[in-house]
# Entry
Amino acid sequence: MNDDVWVVIAAFNEGEVIGQVISRLRKSFDNIAVVDDDSKDQTASNSIEAGAWVITHPINLGQGAALQTGIDFAIERGAAYIVTFDGDGQHRPEDALSMVERAQAGNVDVVLGSRFLGNAVGIPKFRRLILKLAAAFTALTSGIWLTDAHNGLRVLTADAAKKIRLQQNRMAHASELIDLAAWLKLRVVEHPVTIEYTPYSLAKGQKLSNSISILTDLLIAKIAK
# Structure
């Protein structure tokens, strides 16, 4: 087990899936924090039953805000490494573990998962296009060229996590994190991972409207600067 590693999950209405995700993670990780972003179902109770710590937002603030809450919680409890992990079942715990090992090897501050260096099982063609456009946009604005800028599977060292403060509450937080990493001159690497698109994940965070909202949030954030 990795006693100094915390897995942070931002969750909203994940139902029974969140329990399955946590159960799989607990085979490799002891410390799992779920930030329940004002879910209207049994996300919180299912997470507790599966063995996770649960922090609850009294109102829905968005994925970026939930991740920042979870990151702060992990840092307060002495985390040396923080894994961000989606709660919809699309990520593999073994990928998270190999990314932690990459971070523990040194000479890196942020490890980003890339489905395009690894595998994107069942990805819709339009989703692939949107993600490629988002990566190109992020590269132009941050100077960090990546194959996959909006993958929710990441590993941050504690030092990096303390410096990065997410202000984008919703979908654009992923690009904001990369912008901040560039501004802070953090060492960023990509790591091949597998993402499995299922009817459930497509109906949740992978649907078309969320893909478009990524680009919209990015444009608004850049105009506002």
Remarks:
- The mean pLDDT is 90.
- The beta strands are 5-11, 31-36, 53-56, 81-84, 110-121, 154-157, 188-196.
- The longest strand covers residues 110-121.
- Residues 135 and 146 are 6 Å apart (CA to CA).
